[in-house]
TrEMBL record:
Name this polypeptide is given: DNA helicase RecQ
SMART domains, sorted: DEXDc, HELICc, HRDC, RQC
Record's catalysed reaction(s): Couples ATP hydrolysis with the unwinding of duplex DNA by translocating in the 3'-5' direction
EC annotation from Swiss-Prot or TrEMBL: 5.6.2.4
The organism of origin for this protein: Belliella buryatensis
Lineage: Bacteria, Pseudomonadati, Bacteroidota, Cytophagia, Cytophagales
A GO cellular component annotation in the UniProt record: replisome
Length: 725
């Protein structure tokens, strides 16, 4: 190592030695060569251009996409005693002139510039006059429309650099680049000959986990999880500004020190919240994806994705903000396929190619979430890195799914790729195997292939699982030139000649988990509730129901018992906070349950509910109060729905929440208008003897009576209100 480099590394940045590829990259830049760096978040990317900028004569221009975060980088450099500035639209004219003066006087070592500022003619002229050392393009994946954060203005950077100085060396850096994105960046910057430095994407200290996203349950899980991480820093990512505000408010009313961050907030608020997080005044930042790029906070202990990201690159980069100090980092994503569909709809107005690209990225994201293969292996494969063994440190490794013999399936999948000449995507290959007739099949005569329809007895999900696992295990591969197209590898060719036994894993069926009435929550320790207490509570419910002459579900429903067995309420107030309980039910049925829980808690030395009670921020309660008031005035339910801008189904949902929380609602006036006494008697008898109040079960049982779902739901409200509350 050159002595001058070594001295600067120690004296300015405080490091005794380089990590990974850093030294080779610094030497390459100091030698004036074009350099392309692919280095995961937390591996020390910034140092790769900051150190050579300090050593070389002149000013290094750093092009960075996020204006709000340039300040963070510049503040850090100034703290090291390095003269650095940023040039972007937040500066007024006199501030801009001061920055330009400092640069032209040769006093500035690093100048951060937004790509939008770089395109302004006066800035191009100013940079032509300056003595520049090199140009660093941070977040270079923004160049590629295949990247997770494509920005059209990034594609103009090369032509602008050519205007500023033809011989200027370029260093492009990114924390995420699939082989396709890498190729796109190099072509656009005309850097095909650049020296490439690629670090491993394996962040061994991060634990990856995906759980089903279930309405209301997810928020409870997040609160419980964060309360168990007391004093630790975390980030929660949401896709919309509205959701960021909602989740931040929810955490705050539950006593969690959280703040929101998104582009719609006033700049001063954004900067304050960001600084509070960096300075440990705030534990949790709830943010859109803009937060975290370029922020060097090493001790983020967990990253939660409330919403599924738009691509695996985005997911990888955002999770990479956890555990940058090499210590523990938990990456928890809540997933439901509905979110993928919603994101796909957002792309409908994009140009066709961009829309198709975005669709492929979303499919990759869904495949990662639903796959039961080692998460780390899947992620590394996506970035063109192969891992032989499972990591043992993700939810899929800790809780393996059912395996099946994949030999025959794999032969069929590889054969299908071969017989369609390595030219089609996963959907088409699966359609060939399952014998799906469409225009493509006919035009390519694939419906005439010998294996057309050979796998029709197995569903689409299974065949996609087989093909994805074939890719992860290097039997098949993606064609870089034609994105989405799948080809056979040499290993796949060899397997066709001599097939051998291979074990495959069944995918998670998150959709099914969400359809179930009481989905089992995936967590590191199996069921999220105390099963012993749950069984005791069920027995108590049965006893109380028998003494009152009522069906057990009228007392408390299973989800309420599960929550009791999760948070251990021991006071009337705590029990009233349980979903589906409320003070009405506490007064009517609560005493024996509270006694049972208190005894259980004492005998087993358990932490109780006050740590994990979920409060709401009150916005929904206004709707509920309005409904109660209008029902008291005997206003027709259709009219109430219209007044509150709700559909009838949404109104019934609100009413159900009210009555299941123990509040009595008298809607007899409405029921009398929509059904006669005979039909009422039929429904009363049904609910009195039913084992569950599930609507689908009621519809099946009463099929011959031709009841509409709405009728049954309305009568259920009356029944629960009269007998349970």
């Amino acid at each position: 190592m050159d002595q001058k480099v070594k001295d600067n590394l120690k004296q300015i940045f405080g490091f005794s030695q380089f990590r990974g590829n850093q030294e080779a990259i610094v030497d390459n830049i100091l030698g004036g060569s074009n350099t392309f760096v692919i280095m995961p978040t937390g591996a020390g990317k910034s140092l790769c251009y900051q150190l050579p900028a300090v050593i070389k004569d002149g000013t290094a221009v750093v092009i960075s996409p996020l204006i709000a975060l340039m300040k963070n980088q510049v503040d850090q450099l100034n703290a090291f005693g390095i003269n650095a500035y940023f040039l972007n639209s937040t500066l007024n004219k006199s501030e801009t002139n001061k920055v330009k003066k400092e640069v032209l006087a040769g006093k500035t070592k690093l100048l951060y510039v937004a790509p939008e500022s770089l395109t302004k003619e006066e800035n191009v002229q100013f940079l032509k006059e300056a003595n520049l050392s090199f140009v660093a393009i941070d977040e270079a994946h923004c160049i590629s429309e295949w990247g997770h954060d494509f920005r059209p203005e990034y594609r103009r950077i090369k032509s602008i650099i050519a205007q500023i100085g033809e011989k200027l060396p370029i260093i492009a850096l990114t924390a995420t680049a699939t082989p396709k994105v890498q190729q796109d960046i190099q072509r656009n910057l005309q850097m095909e000959e650049a020296d490439l430095y690629k670090s491993s994407f394996n962040r061994t200290n991060l634990y990856y986990e995906v759980r089903p996203k279930v309405k209301n349950e997810t928020k409870k899980q997040i609160i419980k999880y964060i309360k168990g991480q007391k004093g630790k820093s975390g980030i929660i990512y949401c896709l919309s500004r509205k959701k960021v505000e909602e989740i931040a408010a929810l955490l705050q009313v539950n006593g969690i020190n959280a703040a929101p961050y998104h582009a719609g907030l006033d700049q001063s608020v954004r900067i304050k919240n960001q600084d509070d997080f960096l300075n440990e005044e705030v534990d949790v930042i709830v943010a859109t994806i803009a937060f975290g790029m370029g922020i060097d906070k090493p001790d983020v202990r967990y990253v939660i994705h409330y919403d599924v990201p738009k691509s695996l690159e985005g997911y990888y980069q955002e999770t990479g903000r956890a555990g940058r100090d090499g210590l523990e980092g938990h990456c928890l994503m809540f997933y439901r396929y509905d979110d993928i569909i919603k994101l796909d709809k957002f792309n409908k107005d994009k140009p066709v190619t961009e829309r198709e690209n975005a669709k492929v990225l979303l499919q990759e994201m869904a495949a990662y979430a639903e796959s039961s293969v080692c998460r780390r292996k899947t992620l590394l494969h996506y970035f063109g890195e192969y891992m032989e063994k499972d990591c043992g440190f993700c939810d899929n490794c800790k809780h393996p799914k059912e395996k099946f013999d994949g030999k025959d399936y794999l032969v069929t999948a590889i054969q299908a790729v071969k017989e369609t000449n390595n030219r089609f995507n996963i959907d088409h290959i699966v359609n060939v195997i399952r014998g799906e007739q469409n225009d493509y099949m006919v035009s390519y005569s694939h419906d005439k292939l010998a294996l057309f329809g050979i796998g029709k007895d197995d569903d689409e999900r299974l065949w996609k699982t087989v093909i994805r696992q074939a890719m992860i295990n290097d039997f098949l591969e993606k064609d870089i030139e034609n994105y989405g197209v799948i080809k056979i590898t040499q290993k796949g060719q060899d397997f066709l000649k001599e097939p051998y036994g291979i074990q495959m894993s069944k995918d998670h069926d998150f959709e099914q988990m969400m359809i179930d009435e009481t989905p089992e929550v995936l967590s590191a320790n199996g069921k999220s509730y105390d099963e012993n207490l749950f069984e005791l509570l069920k027995a108590e419910r049965k006893k109380v129901a028998k003494s009152k002459g009522l069906p057990p579900y009228v007392i408390f429903q299973d989800p309420s018992l599960e929550e009791m067995a999760t948070v251990y309420p021991t006071t009337r107030e705590e029990l009233a906070q349980i979903n589906g309980v409320g003070m009405g039910k506490v007064a009517k049925f609560g005493a024996s349950f509270l006694k049972l829980i208190a005894t259980y808690v004492e005998e087993n030395d358990i932490m109780t509910a006050s740590d994990v009670v979920v409060k709401t921020s009150g916005s929904r309660s206004k709707v509920k109060i309005s409904i109660i008031q209008q029902v008291d005035r005997k206003i027709d339910l259709d009219e109430i729905a219209e007044n509150l801008n709700l559909s009838m189904s949404e109104l019934l949902q609100e009413i159900e929440q009210i009555i299941y929380s123990g509040t009595k609602l008298n809607i007899n006036y409405y029921i009398e208008n929509i059904m006669d006494e005979e039909r009422e008697d039929l429904l009363h008898e049904y609910f009195m003897n039913a084992e569950t109040d599930n609507i689908k079960a009621a519809l099946n049982e009463l099929e011959d009576e031709d009841f509409a779902e709405e009728e049954i739901r309305v009568y259920r409200v009356k029944f629960i209100s009269e007998h349970a509350n």
